[in-house]
Amino acid sequence: MTASGQSSLSSLPGRFIGQFSGALVAGITLVGIAPATTVQGMVADVNITNIEWAEPWFTVPAYGSTMYSDILTFTIAAVMFQLVFCASSGSALYHGISLATIITVFGPSIGAGLNPAREVMGRLVVSFYHWNWDVFMFYDVWALIPLAWSFSGCLAGALVYWLVIEVPKHLEMKKKIKNTKSKHKDEIPYTIDHDDQENKKPNSSAK
Fold first, then answer.
1. What distance in Å separates the CA atoms of residue 108 and residue 8, rounded to the nearest whole number?
2. Which residue of 11, 88, 124, 185 has the lowest C-beta tally within 10 Å?
3. How far is CA 174 from its chain centroid?
4. What is the 3-state secondary structure (H, E, C) of the chain?
5. Are 30 and 22 in contact (CB under 8 A)?
6. Residue 88 CB partners (closer than 8 Å, separation 6+)
7. Residue 149 phi, psi dihedral angles, 5° rounding
């Protein structure tokens, strides 16, 4: 929201803390409400050999995908998400619709993977149960792909929106103001000098 100009830069630290704190609470809550088989699989799979349990806490690479295809997918999804998000003009309803659009087009795993707070804090919850950092390092540190490229894609989407929508709108408004000022300059103001009118009356009566 800060990149798209919908919130001030001073509110960024508070939003950052709120997002990551909320994601941590969500990750802990999932341990209590997720199916027992999923939680047991997460706790037992210390060596990350079978990641079928992982989806509630973080995104995993799709079967058969490559690093470059995943980078491209997350980048395009993040750009689309940010464009729809910027076009919503601060409406909470349309913010939800923008995320629903990405989930519909790319699938739930990609849509959820666009949230860096979920990716980091979900893995942090799992690492607490595993007592190691392998959940961050598996598959050649694949976790960096949704983190880095979602962030980069959102910045790129905000830049595209600014160049294509905001800059032309600003230039058009500036042009209208300039035309309005020049129009007022060209108009010759007509005023009546009341002092001249009063001076003329005695002269005419004297004649």
1. 30
2. 185
3. 27
4. CCCCCCCCHHHHHHHHHHHHHHHHHHHHHHHHHCCHHHHHHHHHCCCCCCHHHCCCCCCCCCCCCCHHHHHHHHHHHHHHHHHHHHHCCCCHHHHHHHHHHHHHHHCHHHHHHCCHHHHHHHHHHHHHHHCCCHHHHHHHHCCHHHHHHHHHHHHHHHHHHHHHHHHHHHHHHHHHHHHHHHHHHHCCCCCCCHHHHHHHHHHHHHC
5. no
6. 94, 95, 97, 98
7. -80, -25
Q: Please give the torsion angle defined by the CA atoms of residues 151, 156, 161 and 162, in that order, rounded to the nearest 10 degrees.
A: 100
Q: If we measure between CA atoms, which residue out of 69, 74, 75, 88 comes closest to residue 156?
A: 75
* Whether residue 207 has pLDDT greater than 50: no
Residues 68, 74: Cα–Cα separation, whole Å: 10
pLDDT digits (tens, 9 = 90+) for 69-102: 999 999 999 998 888 888 876 666 777 777 788 8
Specify the amino acid at residue 37: T
At position 154, the amino acid (one-letter code) is C
pLDDT tens-digit map of 16-43: 898 899 999 999 999 999 999 999 999 9
Cα(114)–Cα(111) distance, integer angstroms: 6
User: Which has the closest alpha carbon to 24: 141, 150, 115?
Assistant: 115
Question: For residue 85, which of 72, 70, 60, 102 has the smallest C-alpha distance?
Answer: 102
Distance CA 33, CA 64 (A): 30
Tokens of 27: 């990750």
